[in-house]
Amino acid sequence: MIGQPTFAILSIRPTYRATNASPTWTDTPEYTPPEVWVWEKDDSPKWRYSNVNRPIAGATHEKELARGKNPLQLYSLATPNGVKVTIMLEELLAAGHSGAEYDAWLIRIGEGDQFGSGFVGVNPNSKIPALMDYSEQTPRRVFESGAILLYLADKFGAFLPTDRGKRTEALNWLFWQMGSTPYLGGGFGHFYAYAPVKIKYAIDRFTMELKRQLDVLDRQLADNQFIAGDEYTIADMAIWPWYGNGMVNGASYNDPRKFLQTHEYKNLTRWTKEIGERPAAKRGRMVNRASGPPEEQLHERHDASDFETKTGHSGKLPD
Question: Which CATH entry fits the domain spanning 72-159+283-309: 3.30.70.1060, 3.40.640.10, 3.30.70.120, 3.40.30.10?
Answer without folding.
Answer: 3.40.30.10
